[in-house]
Model the fold of this input.
Amino acid sequence: MLKKTIKYVDYDGIEREETFYFNLTKAEVTELETSVDGGLSKMLEKIVEEKDIKRTIEMFKKIILLSYGEKSPDGRRFVKSQELRDGFSQTEAYSELFMEMATDANAAIAFINGITPQMPKEVEN
Done:
C-alpha cells in the first residue's frame, strides 16, 4: 500500500495538503497481468520503449484510479468503488499526481512499485 501526501490548490484557490491511499492486491495484479497478451509488465515496458505517449497516459490513468481507495477505520478493508474513483479523479490532487507520473519516470516507477504487492516467486518443481 502506498500512502501519498499530495499538495494542491483546490477550486476555491485554497492550498491543501492531503494524504491519499493507493493499493493493488495480488488478485488485482494477477488480473491485470493476464488481461493483456504477454502481461502488463511487458506491455508497460513496450509502451515506454516505443515512447507511445497516448498509451502511457491511458495506463497511468487506469493504474491510478484502479489503485485508489480508502482504508476502513479498523484497517481490515481497503474500500474501492466507482464513486470513490470518480470523486478522486475530479480533484486537483489527482491532476497533480497524474502530471507527476507523466513528467517524472522515477516518480512513476516509485508509484507503481509502491502500489503493487510483493508477488511470490514461482515454485520450481
Notes: The beta strands are 2-9, 15-22, 68-71, 78-79. The chain has one domain: 2-115. The radius of gyration is 16 Å. Residues 2-115 form one domain.
